[in-house]
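# nightly structure sweep
# worker-07 picked up a monomer target from the shared queue
# config: single-sequence mode, recycle default, output format = structure tokens
# input follows
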Amino acid sequence: MKKQKLAPRAFNREIYHDVPENVFYGTDDGDQDGSFGEFKEFEHHYYQVEPKRRDNIHMISVVGGLYGLNLLPLWRPKKLTFFDINPAAISYFHLIRNNWLSSDSQEVFLQRLTDADYPVENEQQAFIRENIRLKQEGRLPRTRGSSKRSYQQSWKIALDNFQLTKDILKNTPTEIRTEPMESGSFSRYIREQDNLWIYASNISQFHFFELEFNDPANVVILQIIHPELPQLLDLSDMAGKPVKLNVEIPLSAEYLAQTESV
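# output follows
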């Protein structure tokens, strides 16, 4: 019997399951100096694909520290899905999105987060609102949440393109899913779709799993293994046949009916 491979941090993966204290307030994905040097590769890939592919992107992103916000002004998706295994992370996304849509500029947006002068709907959102305020003041204790880089550094590209990001968040059909990427429901959700550009952050550091696509004609997956190891895998060369994606380190893919791989 073949021994199952384990992700490097598999022992630690359950700490993010429905734990309000394990929301990421900011991100540490990408170049650790906050320069977004990794974006050169993402931009090169985006602009070298066929234009018709760029016009038909359904972007799927884990919430995490919301590094995925930076991909919005680059990928300019026609549909959005944000997901996370942690319900508190989903609440965090809603608060950030609502404040972005309610602000006229990045300065107003960041000040609203600092002042905590916006409504919440329940105790969990109130807890997160207070954590955001504490983060902005540099006083968020680890017992309440994980504070990474500042929001200005974490979401620099999205903030530098504030209005474009706002327009995308406002006008793009968006689905929110509270589930892990390795779940059966997520697998069923993505299998029939052929236009997915997925940001998976560093999920494969905690869990190795497989996803299947009936036809990956316009499927791209991007992961950034902490601290700064990005991998972008474009499956379009395997279009026309069912494909299995191995979400591991590194990413790989193979045809379901044979062993040919990329």
